[in-house]
């Protein structure tokens, strides 16, 4: 098998997908806009970074991401079109191309409105709830993994850090897979088993940042950041942003450092949100 040293715009993958622009760089792979030379349509292609191609454990994780996406058919989850390995040995995922911007890009222009937060809650809680019904956790919720289409509701991408319920962790001992600032304490510390409440927590953190433009936890040093997250040491969102107190309490409960004090399911979080929002 050939192991390329770099993968760049201009590459034609599997004799079909012409990479035309780099869209993003992730922990495991890079994402490109591509043109399907058979259909002429746009697609998004994620492929394993060249430096990881010799790492069989990472290749297995990448294949697992594809298997997960194939099992999920929900309007709030970007649809997988193809998973494969080309003649050069490149592992790739092809998903539908969604015109729009990431939530991270959207937040660069200011916080979302409370009505936009309603859209986030409705779409993401429904999509994540569907994933949980398949026994799948996302495990890496962050603004860069949410796409806000030009038309329609927000959608989830990148299940690369997903964990299948009942299986061993996909991360090696001591390795943090995902964005630590958005991760639940039990993921970072390994003190208790993980379940769907890590995504309840992640959505709470996402809402906190979306409405305030500030991450609830920040420190340049990972060890201190983990300590803050484990202790739940952050300001209430209504202390730093114009958010109704009742709404702030829903976010606060969603991201409680003790998982037993969070909402048990996405449906519970969604119901609580609409209860205080009057919808």
User: What do we call the CATH topology of the largest domain?
Assistant: Transferase(Phosphotransferase), domain 1
- What is the overall shape? globular
Average pLDDT over all residues: 85
How many discrete domains? 2
Q: SSE order in H/E notation? A: EEEEHEEEHHEEEEHHHHH
Please describe the structure with a list of short key phrases separated by commas or semicolons.
six-stranded antiparallel β-sheet; 8 helices; disordered N terminus; globular; Transferase(Phosphotransferase), domain 1; 2 domains; three-stranded antiparallel β-sheet; 279 residues; alpha+beta; Phosphorylase Kinase, domain 1
What's this, in brief?
With 279 residues, the protein is of the alpha+beta class.
Can you offer a commentary on this structure?
The structure is a single chain. With 279 residues, the chain is an alpha+beta fold. The protein has two domains: 12-96, Phosphorylase Kinase, domain 1; 100-277, Transferase(Phosphotransferase) domain 1 (Transferase(Phosphotransferase), domain 1, Orthogonal Bundle). Helix content is 34%, strand content 18%. The chain contains eight helices and eleven strands. The protein has helices at residues 56-71, 103-107, 114-133, 185-189, 197-212, 222-231, 245-254, 266-277; strands at residues 12-13, 17-25, 29-36, 42-48, 80-85, 91-96, 100-102, 136-137, 146-149, 155-156, 163-164. The strands form three sheets. Strands 1-2-3-4-6-5 form a six-stranded antiparallel β-sheet, covered by helices on one side. Helix 3 (114-133) packs antiparallel against helix 5 (197-212). The longest helix is centred in the middle third of the chain and has 20 residues, at 114-133. The chain is globular.
